[in-house]
Input
Amino acid sequence: MAKKNAKISNAVIKRLPRYRRYLIELRKKGIEKISSKEFSELIGYTASQIRQDLNNFGGFGQQGYGYSVEGLYREISAILGLDKEYKMVIVGAGNLGQAIAKYTKFHKQGFKICAAFDINPKLVGNQLEGIQIYDQEELVEYVEEEEIDIGIICVNQESAQEVADKLCFAGVRGIWNFAITDIEVPSHVALEIVQLSDSLHALAYHMNAIPKNVHNAHK
Amino acid sequence: MAKKNAKISNAVIKRLPRYRRYLIELRKKGIEKISSKEFSELIGYTASQIRQDLNNFGGFGQQGYGYSVEGLYREISAILGLDKEYKMVIVGAGNLGQAIAKYTKFHKQGFKICAAFDINPKLVGNQLEGIQIYDQEELVEYVEEEEIDIGIICVNQESAQEVADKLCFAGVRGIWNFAITDIEVPSHVALEIVQLSDSLHALAYHMNAIPKNVHNAHK
Output
């Protein structure tokens, strides 16, 4: 049984979805059990790292048997809270908001996008892949009434904090922030950030950090 | 002068784009200098952390004066390689690829999307915000001839590795991977990953890790 309330490091939590993805692949191939050594060769972490990571949640593995793929998949899913359903809204129905609305994979994973909101009168009243776009004025009432779990922020950086405040006031438990700015949320609200610009800039750094002669050697 | 070839930890590199964003805000406000203490209050890292981070690249700050906003902005931009221009292609012109093509902010930052590629005959030949969609068969030739720097992978998980191989073969220096799978690239190619599903799953974990009574106390 998972020790759900134990304090787990962020680094471990970041690795869990990746373990889970590999377990899904193993399930597809009909593989029923895997040793930490085999898992290590597949995923690229050391066997010791894998045992240490999974140990955080209680012992899944059995000595001399390895991990049950199905069991480990279910445990990690439960730890991540993926055995539940989540109701989400998108705030900001511009290009990024539209792309997320169209990304049907979230829905399959139990994350349902219930509505989108925007301040642009040209967008309000339209549908986005079957998702209704409402006036942003209606955000708080909608989130309260529909008991929305997660607010996805896709507005510009100037209004991101105000939108976050409204979402938190209305009672969301998590915020997924795509705005190119840092926002603050109360401690009872979870916050996860996708910073596309920062990611691209880090890529540029790494490209320039690779010595030029390595490139030339391959040309 | 920045020590460009020094080995900098990934954690520091991840923080640099964030420093830069705050420096842009300070510039907009006409602020010319900032102490590490003031910077700390703004950005939320400790003053000691800030001095340590920026020390990696040589001393920007002057004792008793603080950091020059403009100077630090330019140095960090140069360290990140943002004083250059980058040519990019998008592979996979589905919803995600389209959203990235529409995201004009990258262009303003010197990252130019030159072309998109897809295997879907319904998409090939169309334009995406002025970006031509070509047949994926033409990818290698285009990347070679146009000397593309970065390949953005927006294809499904089954074909992501094959696309990465082609991009690397054709000579890109960096890959920005949005596919929901891990890919491998040669050591002379930089790789940056945006794992939207992993990020959403981490959010779900954090939401469930916050004790329930905290939520109730706020209702």
In short: Residues 10-28 of chain A form the longest helix (19 residues). Chain A touches chain B through 69 residues (CB under 8 Å). Chain A has two domains: 10-79, 86-198. The longest strand of chain A covers residues 111-118.
